[in-house]
């Protein structure tokens, strides 16, 4: 059984599939009261199942999918709002923030290289993993310039983001990190936009630091990745 | 929602679109290493600080976009179907490296920043 070609050619196919499965995810989350089951996870699983079962090309899905992910641009620009609303606190703590950014991007690159080497991941996979904590567009650029597989990096980046958003606050609380600036910076540095998005549910300050962290960690990682890979790999 | 709000939401989106368009032009013509959206974030920050754009104009639109951000990440995640073979072959190293490294970055960054801030606060109290 397959859908008519005219239906598949229209972007409304990918758009509806994404929105409808997201809605099922929200409904499922509310029904099961299992708060860590983010609708994103349900939606991703359902879409992958659907296009695999009906043997639909990713390209066909992405005709509509790309229209949804296009809004990531304006959404990223929107991070300026919490940033400006909390500028004074950020100014007052600029040293801590700067050190946090440096530590965050370096620990990301180094830990991936060491762990992936230890687990004997292949070279392209290791290189694709390196920018996993960086926001997708920068991550794909870094992956490309290192010799990784940019599209694989995109998948890894999103999964990292989902994981960080789901467990980040619990892990940080468990290890005694309670300061809002520290939490926002850690979430932005480890799980980019999705971590920051989760921070905005806590408070505006965490979201503001998260947004700053995404931008600066992205830049710092882009600058230092090539150099560190040269030394460590 | 009243009509004023709707007009503002549209205006906010127009501004965001214009900013992204200008960012893209700048990135391409000046060979800037940033993705257009991040340059756009910097530009909007400057426009808000200099009051060229008022917070009231963009806040509504921006908050809606930030609220749905999770949804926007779904389509790129679906591209995993293109890499079934590589992911299934190296599933274990990929997943373990990703999870461990994410937790390491989170803790190292969070702990460092918290330590520096509490130290500074103690110094200020003295």
Describe what is shown at a glance:
Chain A is mostly helical. Chain A contains 13 helices and no strands.
Structural overview:
The complex is a heterodimer of chains A (233) and B (126). The termini of chain A are far apart. In chain A, 53% of the residues are buried. Chain A has 233 residues and is an all-alpha fold. Chain A is globular. Chain A has helices spanning 5-9, 11-32, 39-53, 58-69, 72-78, 80-85, 87-92, 94-118, 123-129, 136-146, 150-174, 180-202, 204-232. Chain B is built from seven helices and no strands. In chain B, α1 crosses α3. The longest helix of chain B is centred in the last third of the chain and has 35 residues, at 91-125. At the A-B interface, α2, α3, α4, α5 and α6 of A face α1, α2, α3, α4 and α5 of B.
**Helicity of chain A, as a percent range:** over 70%
Give the end-to-end Cα distance of chain B, rounded to a whole number of Å.
51 Å
Strand tally of chain B: 0
Overall pLDDT confidence of chain A: 91
Number of helices of chain B: 7
Structural class of chain B: mainly alpha
Q: Which secondary-structure class do the elements of chain A indicate?
A: mainly alpha
* Average pLDDT number of chain B: 91
List the secondary-structure elements of chain A in sequence, H or E.
HHHHHHHHHHHHH
Specify the helix fraction band of chain B: over 70%
Q: Evaluate the radius of gyration of chain B.
A: 21 Å
* Gyration radius of chain A, rounded: 19 Å
List keywords for this structure.
heterodimer; A: 233 residues; mainly alpha; 83% helix; B: 126 residues; 7 helices; 0% strand
Summarize the SSE layout with pairings.
The complex is a heterodimer of chains A (233) and B (126).
Chain A: H1 5-9, H2 11-32, H3 39-53, H4 58-69, H5 72-78, H6 80-85, H7 87-92, H8 94-118, H9 123-129, H10 136-146, H11 150-174, H12 180-202, H13 204-232
Chain B: H1 3-30, H2 36-49, H3 55-67, H4 69-72, H5 74-78, H6 84-89, H7 91-125
Helix pairs in contact in B: 1-2, 1-3
């Amino acid at each position: 059984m397959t859908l008519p070609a005219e239906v598949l050619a229209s972007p409304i196919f990918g758009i509806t599939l994404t929105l409808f499965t997201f809605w099922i995810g929200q409904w499922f989350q509310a029904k099961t009261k299992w708060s860590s089951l983010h609708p994103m996870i349900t939606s991703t699983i359902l879409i992958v199942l659907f296009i695999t079962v009906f043997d639909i090309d990713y390209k066909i899905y992405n005709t509509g999918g790309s229209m949804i992910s296009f809004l990531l641009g304006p959404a990223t620009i929107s991070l300026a709002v919490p940033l400006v609303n909390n500028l004074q606190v950020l100014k007052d703590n600029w040293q801590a923030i700067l050190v946090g950014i440096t530590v965050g991007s370096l620990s990301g690159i180094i830990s991936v290289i060491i762990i992936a080497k230890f687990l004997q991941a292949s070279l392209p996979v290791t290189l694709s993993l390196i920018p996993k904590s960086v926001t997708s567009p920068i991550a794909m650029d870094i992956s490309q310039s290192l010799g990784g597989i940019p599209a694989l990096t995109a998948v890894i980046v999103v999964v990292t983001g989902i994981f960080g958003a789901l467990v980040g606050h619990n892990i940080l609380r468990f290890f005694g990190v309670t300061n809002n600036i520290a939490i926002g910076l850690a979430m932005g540095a480890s799980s980019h936009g999705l971590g920051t998005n989760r921070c905005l549910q806590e408070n505006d300050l965490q979201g503001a630091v998260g947004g700053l962290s995404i931008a600066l960690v992205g830049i710092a990682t882009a600058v230092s990745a090539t150099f560190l890979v040269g030394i460590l790999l | 929602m009243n009509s004023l709000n709707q007009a503002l939401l549209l205006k906010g989106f127009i501004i965001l679109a214009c900013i992204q368009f200008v960012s893209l032009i700048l990135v391409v013509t000046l060979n800037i290493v940033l993705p257009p959206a991040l340059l756009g974030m910097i530009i909007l920050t400057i426009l808000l600080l200099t009051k060229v754009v008022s917070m009231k104009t963009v806040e509504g639109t921006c908050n809606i976009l930030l609220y749905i951000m999770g949804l926007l990440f779904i389509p790129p995640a679906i591209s995993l179907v293109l890499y079934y073979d590589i992911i299934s072959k190296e599933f274990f190293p990929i997943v373990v490296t990703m999870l461990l490294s994410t937790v390491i970055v989170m803790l190292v960054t969070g702990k460092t920043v918290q330590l520096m801030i509490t130290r500074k606060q103690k110094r200020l109290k003295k």
